[in-house]
Amino acid sequence: MSEGREILRTEGLWKQYGRITAVADMHLQVFDGEVFSFLGPNGSGKSTTVGMVLGLVRPTHGRALVFGSDMATHPWPALRRIGAVVETPAFYPYLSGYDNLRALAIMLGDIPDTRIDEMLELVGLHERKRDAYKTYSLGMKQRLGIASTLLRDPELIILDEPTNGLDPAGTREVRELIPELARQGRTVFLCSHLLHEVQAVSDRVAIVKKGRMVAQGTVNELLGRGQYLRLRADDNDALAQALAAIPWITSVDRVDGYVRAAAPTAKSAELNMTLAQRGVYLAELAPWEVELESVFLELTGEEMHA
Amino acid sequence: MNMPRLMAVEFYKLRKRMMTWVVGLLLVGLVILLYSVLWNISGRVTFFGDRQNGIRFTGEDLRRALFLQGAVPFSLEIVSTFGTLLAVILAAGAVGSEYAWGTVRLMATASSGRLRLISARLVVVSALIAAGALLAVAVALAYSTVITLTSGGSDFSFLTAGFVKEQFFAYARTLFVMAPYVSLAFAAAVLGRSTLAGVGTGMGVAFLEPVVSNLMRLGGNPWKSIPNWLINANTQVITLQNVVPEPLPRFGPSRREVVSQGLHSPEVAAIILALYIVAFIAVAFVVYRRRDITAGSGG
Questions:
Q1: Are B112 and A76 in contact (CB < 8 Å)?
Q2: HSE on the CB side for A120, CA within 13 Å?
Q3: Which of A198, B82, B167, B189 is in Cβ range 3.0-4.6 Å of A37 for a Cys bridge?
Q4: Above 80 in pLDDT, residue A102?
Q5: How far is B206 from chain A (nearest CA, A)?
Q6: Which residues are CB-neighbours of A150 under 8 A, at least 6 positions away?
Q7: ipTM of the complex
Q8: Mutation to test the A interface, candidates B193, B292, B297, most A Cβ within 10 Å
Q9: Nearest to A202 by CA among A8, A38, A11, A13
Q10: pTM of the predicted model, to two decimals?
């Protein structure tokens, strides 16, 4: 997708707790209307970064700018345009789902009661709206969290593990809701460890490890889509040698019984012909498809569990 | 986002919270209980003390003290002692629970400023405490009206403008002496990020300070003058300005004890208490404004 107006930027964001570096030199960019996913293992600094982006945590160095506001010094104009659930959803346990949203609506102002009902209907909590929050399941709490972020009709939505605790049907609903939010013109900043879900809904992704960003780009860029080909021949050694001799192929390696060549998929036909001219006949030629999880593992050396 | 809206949401939350009603009912129950016990005693006991050493007061004296004239100062005496402990729980709970539930994040990102948020909370808690004190007074007035009318004491000539004015002053003095403990509990709950920290500190100081003060006074110079600069001694100076009719019980030291301890004048005591209040609130505000709001119960 084309990059729109920049609405969130972090400049060398750094958070130090004594001798522990939680976040180091974080540079993020999020553009209008995109779904941006922020990935990292537990303890990698995701929540601290989100805390600094929301003005909850004071950076040791650097700054977070959202809608042009420095979130450490003057966050309020931006916060009015953000809906966020940070880490686990947190509401008043003695209040019902409706009353929790009502309290939020009083605080935000200019939100009619009908809007509260609409949001509860949207997340499927309408029938339980009068029950105390403390009686809700984790999935229901998550759904109330999402309803609370939408209550103020925000331009930027920050969701931290939004499918945590949801059943498969609820997970699918949230997965469908995220691109829908983007289609409505909202920007979604998503923290998740469910990589296959992130891959399906994200426009751009950042991966962090031990407080440092190790990759940032579009999903296609990170997955190397359109840049690698998967090849197989009766004699893979001869195939690899032949590929290495072609000047416009920048790298060749062997993965799981296949030869992976760094070549644009658009040149597949030309490559097939070149190899045939050199006496190497292919049994298989296809774009190299990788999962985000593989990229993540490669970059962080850690596994994320669903 | 303006303060009235933040105050409205704080009031909405506290109004819907069971703890607020329980604290209020406890105070009302305590007033009713004390009135009932004293009323019952006044009817059953002819005199207090003994005939050889002198009768301190009669049952009739006690009954007359429960009449309308003494309702306000006596109920305020109850409020300033037991009510302070309940107010400490209310104030600490209003702040500490937000950390325990993690709603401190929700509120901080939805409000228009942390200072406004904590100010609104303090104002609403203070207003509820003032309302609770007023409720206790109202219950005492109702109870003593019944006692007055049913005991032939329906002489309302005491009800002068000066008397009414003094009752307002007594009410203001009572709220003022509660304020250092409430603001201390408020600040401790912010610092400790928990209700327990606020309640523990507020009640700890309320209970332990008199004990420690007494030990200091026994210790001679330079220790014995220190308690005069602490909270308890100065709240006693102010509370003593409220005239509770004899022989109703007072829960603090007597005027004679206060004089013997060489305590400050009411004006100086008020200044000292005001400084405590300002200091505690300032600490709460600075910490709440500057500190990171992070995950879970750690806030």
A1: yes
A2: 20
A3: A198
A4: yes
A5: 30
A6: A83, A119, A122, A157
A7: 0.85
A8: B292
A9: A38
A10: 0.84
